[in-house]
Amino acid sequence: MQRRFTTRRTTDAKVGAMDLTRRGFLAAALAIGLAGCVPMPNPRLDVPTPTGGRPPIWQKAADAETAIATAYTAAASVITGGADWCKGAAALHAAHAATMSLANPWSGLGLGTPVTSAGATDAKTALSQLERAISDATTTITAGLKQAANGPEALLWASLLVCLQVGSVWCADTTVKRPAPKPGTVVPYEITVDPVADAATAALDRCYALRFALTTSLGRTARNGQLHADLANALTQVGTMVASLMGLLMASGATPPAPELSYTLPSGLGDNDAIRATWGAMEASLGQACTYLAGCLTGDDAVTWATTAGDQMARATAMGQTLTWWPGWG
Question: Do the Cβ atoms of 294 and 305 come closer than 8 Å?
């Protein structure tokens, strides 16, 4: 079963003669979101408020995200070739910090504000500070995801964890060219997630399609080439994922569907560049499905699938795919 994603875009609210107060305007925006019309962030409305009655880990996560944004800003001017990635990632984590600080993180208002930094004296120091900030945040956000209820809460935390993993991989080798993170077209909103069996089936279908593409590509690459070895390794990883998803489906009382005989690939496989582009797009698609699956789960299971999604998104960005601010939301 394929799930349907709902996206939301920024619209200018017109109130006519009605003079709403600021509090009334925010309440109206929330009511619109709950009714299903979900706007994209509007910088004029980006007014983070305290996390209210939620557990302290929410504010701790917001602080950790701010620390990462600050570290990326410091690194942007000193890491060779890293300015675009660092600036894009700083904006991403500033948005995450703002969202986690909102009274309603699913209101679509957490755009965030640019952070400033005195900068780092050298690339080694900047990278060390960034890696430490990401590591600290990963500990906090993993704990938050374990505690989260399935649905929009778990999906929110899972999105954060996926982005942290991609950042950690970027730090491990800053020479790998990756597109700078972008906002994308969706933000967190009040969502009713699918049953686990449906979400797992959707992820399994994307696994099957990726396995088909990898197998097809192996036959079109030189056996002694690096791409051939990379494809073979990826095929092994996908096989493990297929087995895990089948186990999850059977544990939920569902019967895993059989794969199709063939799958339509997103683009041609005429040369190595085309193979990598197709592979990257399919990894990104599977990463989105696994992030969403994490949002349908709780505890260690949610962390496992968010971690899997992070690995996939890291591979996808290395093949030219763009990391957006909110993986798994559409």
Answer: yes
Is the separation of the CB atoms in 194 and 3 below 8 Å? yes
Contact 137, 143 (CB under 8 A): no
Look at the pTM and tell me if it is higher than 0.85. Answer: no
Partners of 182 in beta bridges: 324
Task: Return the number of other C-beta atoms located less than 10 Å from residue 281's C-beta.
Answer: 19
Contact 40, 189 (CB under 8 A): no
Residue type, 157: W
Query: What is the residue-averaged pLDDT of the chain?
Result: 85
Q: Which residues have C-beta within 8 Å of that of residue 242, sequence separation ≥ 6?
A: 204, 207, 208, 211
Q: Which CATH number does the domain housing residue 291 bear?
A: 1.20.1260.10
Whose structure tokens read 């990598």? 276
Residues of the domain holding 299: 196-318
Domain assignment present for 80 = no
Q: Is the dihedral of CA 195, 201, 207, 209 positive or negative?
A: negative
Tokens of 30: 């929330």
How is residue 120 written in tokens? Answer: 């780092």
Assigned token pair, 230: 């990379």
Helix H segments across the chain? 22-35, 57-75, 83-101, 123-147, 152-172, 196-218, 226-251, 272-295, 299-318
How far are the Cα atoms of 9, 166, 196 from residue 324, in angstroms, in the given order? 15, 11, 24
> What's the CA gap between 121 and 72, in Å, rounded?
14
> Could you give the number of structural domains in the chain?
1
Tokens 């972008």 sit at which residue?
182
With a cut of 50, say whether residue 18 has pLDDT above it. no
Question: What are the pLDDT digits (tens) for 139-188?
Answer: 999 999 999 999 999 999 999 999 999 999 999 999 999 999 999 999 99
Q: Nearest CA to 85 among 133, 130, 136, 142?
A: 130
